[in-house]
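Duplicate of earlier report; Transporter input re-posted below.
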Amino acid sequence: MTSTPVSESISRARRGVGVGGSGRPARDARRGIAPGRARTLTLLVLPSIVLVLLLNAYPVIYAGVQSMRNGDLIAAGDFIGFDNYVQVLSDPGFWKSARFTVIFSLVGVFGSWAVGLGIALLLRGKVPGGGIMKVLLLLPWVVPTVVSATSWNWLVATPQSPLPVIAKALGFEQVLFLANPLSAQIIVCIFKVWISFPFMMMMMSAALASVDTNVYEAARVDGASRWQQFRHMTLPLTARSTYISWILMTIFCVNDFPTIFLLTQGGPVGATQSLVVKAYQTVFLEYRTGPGVAIAFLMTLVLVIISVVLFKRVQKAAIE
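Output:
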């Protein structure tokens, strides 16, 4: 055991400095791209950029025009400016859907990340049948959502479903999980974690595999506990992958239509109606394309802001 404080030893280990090493942090070896090479790379990427713009620009522009008209699925309607956005933002139903979307996304992102990271740490060691277990744990992500939603409906939807029957046998009153607003929200959020944690598990497994085990050995020699290793080494060393997975999962959650619609269709009484479900119902059930597309544009704006914030964290983690 050395006399070096544990916190300093962990910091040294994260920088790749062994026990008794010099402690000098590695210098940033990144160099700028030469101007000629930069022009060549730009010319190589330019055709792909032009193709993506051609494929996406027209739908986005057309949808933007629709969001400023009072038309339906057949007629474009008259130009009304930002009235649809004002109408949407003044609708209590929009804010109710926005609130559930935030809850659904937070639980989906951090719940699946916590479960995925925990399983990734567990399977990092020598576990008998670890390879087969990883394949089995991927099934919730691989199986089509319609199959998973049908299975969960069978488990909880009716009084004859297994979970309500078990709850009644334990002495509880008859519980209809998808008929009560609060329990329906809980079931939908748990279902999202269930189908999403394999993705997080794979992301975290890849991140943990890139971490040199020698840094943990150095920290253990200097007296760092498992919690200190996890807090000061595992989390910082996997931060880039963590932030990237959060960006992707946030997009998945906010835009997740089938998970909610197949399980509850936004009910009961709109308790599980997310913004994407509300946009769908506004356009295809109420035939109001303007407000529906306006909701979609507001969702896109929020996702862009969240992605930019988290991407800055990715860059900062790369520098650290």
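The chain has one domain: 91-319.

Merging into the original ticket.
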